[in-house]
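Sharing a chain and its predicted structure for anyone who wants a worked example. Both blocks are below, sequence first, tokens second.
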Amino acid sequence: MKTRPIALTAALGSALLLLGAFAFQYLGGLAPCKLCIWQRWPHGRAVGVGLLLFLLPSRWLALVGGLIVGAMTGKAIAAARRLPFLAINHLEGHALT
């Protein structure tokens, strides 16, 4: 399966969701809730990663995208539970064991 059409579809989908959120806020006059603000960050990252995948199609870039999504999910869970987000170097952990 080719990654370029999937990456472009994902990037455009997230971009459209962001545009819709901003339209409701600025054109519709609806104030966003706290969750709405938090949801904008992963969509912004998805647009960036999707465009990178579209412009530079390679398998390692897909891995980087997955790592970014995982890190953002971890940050969101930590923030929701008011826990500290600890950055752990996974490769270093393997090298030391």
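Comments welcome. The helical segments are 3-27, 34-55, 59-80, 90-96.
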